[in-house]
Amino acid sequence: MSKRVWFSAIVSTLVVCGGMAAALAVHAEVPSQLAGKPLLAVAEEKKSKSLKDIIFETQKLVVMIETDKGEQGSGFLYNLEGDLITNAHVVAGARMVKIKTADAREMEGEVIGISTETDVAVVRVPELSGTEPLQVVRDEKAEVGDEVLAVGSPLGFQNTVTTGIISGLGRSFEIEPYLYSDLYQISAPIAPGNSGGPLVDQKTGAVLGINSAGYEQGSIGFSIPIANVIELAEQWSNEPMQELPEIETSDDKDGPEENASVEEFAGYLVTHFYDSLNNADYVYAYSLLGGNWKEGTSYEKFREGYLGTLNVVIDNMHVKNGKKDKAVVIAVISVDERVDGKYVLSKYQVTYEVGYENDQLKLLSGKGKAIK
Asked: CA 121, CA 243: separation in Å to the nearest integer?
């Protein structure tokens, strides 16, 4: 055998042995739970999340914020330090605020940063430190047609979700003392109390903006792109303000006026009730019932009655004056429900009496009949 052949054989042997040694070395580094599995399959493809999964995960990290003056708004966790991003007008004039989480925990937060020019502020909640925050879109901007969720506490109804799309870009206007510019216009309505809540991408669950204002004449909302203010928020998180600037705000409260009529919000409450059922949030839907209704219907019975309901759509709704500061809501609904093991589409006429109970708007009673 020639020297060249011997040299080739030796080189081949070394390559094979080297490969075996490398394989053994790699195997030694692979965790025991992956032993026997193809190395190329270690990084498994992430499963896409359903809309309900995204809503559930987002709601856990959105809170209700209340000041000692009774102002209410929303905020969302954006870092591991327990810091919430919200609107400046929600916490203007306050240093310490009350925080209520989705699971009904109450804690104290401190305003550590607030702008006098842009409607954004940061609230630190030590008890939330270490909690995994929402993902934030730092650089990219949303586009017209992108599907979004607006999450917040409109009219004090915590963790309300409204869906819509980005319907416009670059909107600008002024609500003293703030100048709003380069806003997203969205088809999801923004009601009092939604302010400061996140605008979320329906497909990824990432925060696109801060819901900041609504338009009274229709179902239109406006949101500050998070990419425009994230660096400012991080600056306050890294170096909290020692003294907060004084901010003059209008006398209009970010919530229902004390003399607002029940009729103004009765239809909204019924819609909110069915939204909660559609999201399978039976605990929250049950919390919207009045005390007398709850006395006659346990939570277990209430939940059982709706387990077979897949989806409810309100076809039309009418609100009229009731007795003693109450309102009556009459609606026709389409219900996709399970009957005898299969889903069928049924129609009902429902009637609700709505009124205040301990300063909270409640469904005091309700009844329905099938429409054939």
From this structure: 14
Residue 241 dihedral angles phi and psi, to the nearest 5°: -65, 135
User: In this structure, are strands 62-66 and 309-321 parallel, antiparallel, or unpaired?
Assistant: unpaired
- The answer as to CATH 3.10.450.100 being correct for domain 262-371 is yes
Of 14-18, 87-91, 170-174, 224-228, the range with the lowest mean pLDDT is 14-18
Residue 9 pLDDT: 40
Asked if 225 contacts 182 with a C-beta cutoff of 8 angstroms, the reply is: yes
Instruction: Look up residue 142 and give its DSSP letter.
Output: -
Round to whole Å and give the CA distance between 327 and 318.
Answer: 10
What is the DSSP secondary structure assignment for residue 254, as one 8-state letter?
S
pLDDT for 250 equals 54
- What count of Cα atoms within 13 Å lies in the side-chain half-sphere of residue 57? 18
Q: Is residue 108 a contact partner of residue 99, using CB atoms and an 8 Å limit? A: yes
297 touches 282 (CB < 8 A): no
Residue ranges covered by each domain of the chain: 3-41, 48-255, 262-371
Q: What is the CATH code for 48-255?
A: 2.40.10.120
User: 261 and 328 in contact (C-beta within 8 Å)?
Assistant: no
pTM of the predicted protein model: 0.60
The answer to whether the CB of 263 falls within 8 A of the CB of 327 is yes
- Do 74 and 200 meet the contact criterion of CB atoms below 8 Å apart? no
